[in-house]
Amino acid sequence: MKAAVIYGEKELKVQDIDVPEVTDGKVKVKVEWAGICGSDLHIYHHGAILSDEEHPLSGRKPPVVLGHEFAGTVTEIGKNVFNVAVGDNVAIEPLLYCGTCEMCKKGNYHICEISNTGSLGVNDDGGFAEYVVTDAYHIYKLPQNVTLEEGALIEPMSVAHHAVKRSGLKVGQSAAIFGAGPIGLLTLLSAEAAGASETFVIDVSQERLDKAKEMGATYTINPTHEDAVDKIMQITGKGVDVAYEAAGAQPTFVSAIQSLKRAGTITVVAVFGNEITFDSNIMFGKEASMQWSAAYPNSFSEVINLISSGKLDVKQVITKRIKLDDIVKDGLDLLAEDKSQAKILVSPN
Question: Which residue intervals define the domain Enoyl reductase (ER) in the entry (predicted)?
Fold first, then answer.
């Protein structure tokens, strides 16, 4: 089968590899669509996350098939698989976890003590391929009214959904999203679905701000043209109830803190490439809360239901569809340069 295999920094090859055998507890999925994530960009352009050591659960290390946001159709199942059947359209939750450590037993399998945030597409073969064979626990059946394009967006939508749940955003409260990349835009959708009365989206890309406005943002702010914190304070008088840091940059982190009202909450969704600093006295003086949001435990079913019910229109973030052969030129390289792009979907067929 054809697959995009990552070997290391700037070393990705679209090549033919063998389709794994379907053994007990395994499911074979014909991939229809796979999304390019920001972490895929960091992996390809900077070699981030990749490890020379075998993962403790998968036993794999690079080279592996890249891609962790994907959906397709079940074509074969092994013995002792009961959650899906051949012909089902499915989405794949890529997290690797042991199921037996303290965190897993508490339901926090996304921070499994053994896996250490391991994932298909990083620590085992992922979705930029014609087929994926993986354990049944990764597989979620899609309702008939949820398309496979939407299925490929369930993973990033779950990141945003989990962040909004952790933030405690309540109906009628205000929210600011710093960063309007795919996760920032999906966080906007999730905040709207949770009942935010007023939303601010902050980004240096006007194209991304235009997309946020299309998706319902109450206000969009370009910090290269005006001070984002001053603007938020002018409009709200006191600041926002919740701020989401979805850019992963020192300036936006500080601005998110400054934009909070007293007793507000900042939730960090992004991964930072470097250490960050802040004036803790600002948080102290507001008695504000700060938290990080990693991945999405127990979120896939909820997000699938929200999409199926029409409460989340995730298709809005799709800006381009490409073939697997063109994943570098029209995907990984383009996303690093063209800020008008949000979510690019890849078809391996």
Answer: 8-346
From CA 175, how far away is CA 154, in angstroms rounded?
Answer: 22
Task: Please state which of the four CATH numbers 3.80.10.10, 3.40.50.300, 3.40.50.150, 3.90.180.10 is assigned to the domain occupying 2-152+313-347.
Answer: 3.90.180.10
3-state secondary structure of 344: strand
Give the CATH number of domain 160-292: 3.40.50.720
Token pair of 55 as six digits: 């993962």
Q: Which residue type is seen at 286?
A: K
Q: What residue has token string 């074969």? A: 76
Overall pTM surpassing 0.90 (yes/no)? yes
CB 129 within 8 A of CB 348: yes
What does pLDDT average to in each consecutive run of 10 residues of the chain (349 residues)? 97 97 98 96 93 96 98 98 98 98 97 96 98 98 98 98 98 98 97 98 96 98 97 98 97 98 98 92 97 96 98 97 98 94 95
Distances in whole angstroms, Cα of residue 137 to Cα of each of 25, 83, 93, 192, 242? 9, 8, 8, 30, 34
Per DSSP, the residues of 68-136 read -EEEEEEEEE-TT--S--TT-EEEE--B---S-SHHHHTT-GGG-TTTSS-BBTTTB--SSBSEEEEEG
Strand (E) positions, the chain? Answer: 2-8, 11-16, 26-35, 64-65, 69-77, 89-92, 131-135, 139-141, 174-178, 198-202, 219-221, 240-245, 260-268, 289-292, 318-323, 343-347
Amino acid type, 314: V
The tokens describing 271, both together, are 């991964």
List residues bridging with 69 in a β-sheet: 35
| Cα–Cα distance measured from residue 230 to residue 45, given in angstroms and rounded to the nearest whole number | 35
